[in-house]
């Protein structure tokens, strides 16, 4: 049997078109989750899992319908696989491991699961690299100002700006660093930095 699943938590106006796409793929039964309400006891995805039989084909139009995040996608892929059903993602054909070689299919499935686990780390590294590239470009254009200090005379936060001038005033009055720290809540490094500014 061919089963189809849709998750429409935001743009529900797409429902008729998406159902039509699944019907063109000769899907016999379509399951639709259209609410992100956590109070729902049993989702349509869970209903679908209960009905899946070995050899069934479960069709998703996109990976987005498989889950809201990588962990949910991974858990759902494993759940479908445990039912000995075939998973088909229309916009990601490279993930559909259905060949005559069962050993190859299992290897492909495991690689997919491993990839889902690695995606958050890959994204983190990629975002960091993009951030560094942006900083380098800004430096080359001489517009990079670095990270703004929490307590400074130019900070956009008026409360933090007030604390800065309070620290400055206490330093000029000769109040010890520990006392300034207790009175303002600023850390010692911040107080030392402002001291250095006053000395320069």
UniProtKB/TrEMBL annotation:
Mind telling me which SMART domains this protein's record contains?
Resolvase (SM00857)
Q: Which residues form the Resolvase/invertase-type recombinase catalytic domain?
A: 1-142
Q: Which PROSITE patterns does the record match to this protein?
A: RECOMBINASES_3 (PS51736)
Q: Which Gene3D superfamilies match?
A: Homeodomain-like, Resolvase, N-terminal catalytic domain
Descriptive protein name: Resolvase/invertase-type recombinase catalytic domain-containing protein
- Species annotation: Candidatus Enterococcus lemimoniae
Q: What is the lineage of its organism?
A: Bacteria, Bacillati, Bacillota, Bacilli, Lactobacillales
